[in-house]
Amino acid sequence: LKDVKHRPNLHISTRSWATEILFKEDNKEATGVRFTKNKRYHTVRARREVILSAGAFETPKLLMNSGIGPAADLKRHGIRVRQDLPVGQRVYEHGGLFGPIFIIRNGTPRERNLLSLEQVLTVDEILRFRNGTGPLTSNSIESLLYVKSPYAADPDPGMPDVEVMQSFTSMSFDSSIATRLAYRLPDSLVREYFDPLIGVLTGSNHHHRERALKLVK
Predict the structure, then answer these.
(1) Which tens digits make up the pLDDT trace of 102-118?
(2) Alpha-carbon gap, residue 149 to 146, rounded angstroms
(3) Which of 82, 94, 115, 79 is nearest to 196 (CA)?
(4) d(Cα 211, Cα 92) in Å, to the nearest integer?
(5) What percent of the chain has pLDDT over 70?
(6) Which of 34, 69, 74, 101 is the most buried (most CB within 10 A)?
(7) Residues 141-182: tens digit of each pLDDT
(8) Which long-range contacts (CB under 8 A, 24 or more apart) does 57-62 make?
(9) Is the model's pLDDT at 199 over the cut of 50?
(10) How many CA atoms lie within 13 A of 66 on its CB side?
(11) What 8-state DSSP symbol labels residue 63?
(12) How far apart are CA 151 and CA 187, in angstroms?
């Protein structure tokens, strides 16, 4: 947004949390959004359209809180039903693989040393980040590739079923316990494969069952 952040018709509200989509009383036309900021509720109105981009979990949650979703669930929570739709009923955990992992052997001293989160989170790297340079300016995914595998269920050649991500880090980059728990990596697996940065393929141990996203009090 650097090139357009000074436009008079662009307003960015940070530390804000959307809680409900507002509609006209007599139809299903969205008119705005209600959100919280600094423990207070605020309302913004839309003249043309409301675009939802809250992620795989928060988008269906926002829709259901606004009255769009399974009618039985909405009524159970006292939410007015605006449209009975199977929102949040097909949430999947996708299987994945980590690897192969490549080690920098002939890079600069700085490149050879950037092997762990602790080595990157330094004052020098944070100052570089504030100037828009250094590895902290990356989300770690440098490129994406979508391909159609021979095992794809959809015959449409324009519908890929495999995503390949190129990252400048490996799972050993973040040695925290939280990362190991999030990806269900046994300590023995981390010690044997990721700690020495050996280039291997490793399972992420995701569940493959279909899940439904439901509102709870």
Answers:
(1) 666 666 665 555 555 66
(2) 10
(3) 115
(4) 6
(5) 69
(6) 69
(7) 778 888 898 888 888 888 888 888 877 666 656 556 766 777
(8) 57/91, 57/213, 58/18, 60/87, 60/88, 60/91, 60/213, 61/88, 61/213, 61/215, 62/18, 62/19, 62/20, 62/21
(9) no
(10) 27
(11) H
(12) 32
The number of beta carbons lying within 10 Å of the beta carbon of residue 164 is 11
**How far is it, in rounded angstroms, from Cα 133 to Cα 88?**
39
Residue 16 to residue 160: CA distance in whole angstroms: 35
The two structure tokens encoding residue 44: 């913004």
Tell me which residue of 204, 203, 197, 166 sits closest to 182, measured CA to CA.
204
The tokens describing 32, both together, are: 């705005």
The bridge status of strand 83-84 relative to strand 210-211 is: unpaired
Q: How many residues does the chain have?
A: 217
Type of residue found at 98:
F
CB 140 within 8 Å of CB 166? no
Assigned token pair, 167: 């990252």
Residue 59 confidence (pLDDT) above 50: yes
What pLDDT score does 75 carry?
Answer: 95
Residue position matching structure tokens 């900021």: 37
- 3-class SS shares of the chain: helix, strand, coil, % to 5: 25, 20, 55
Give the C-alpha separation, 168 to 135, whole Å. Answer: 9
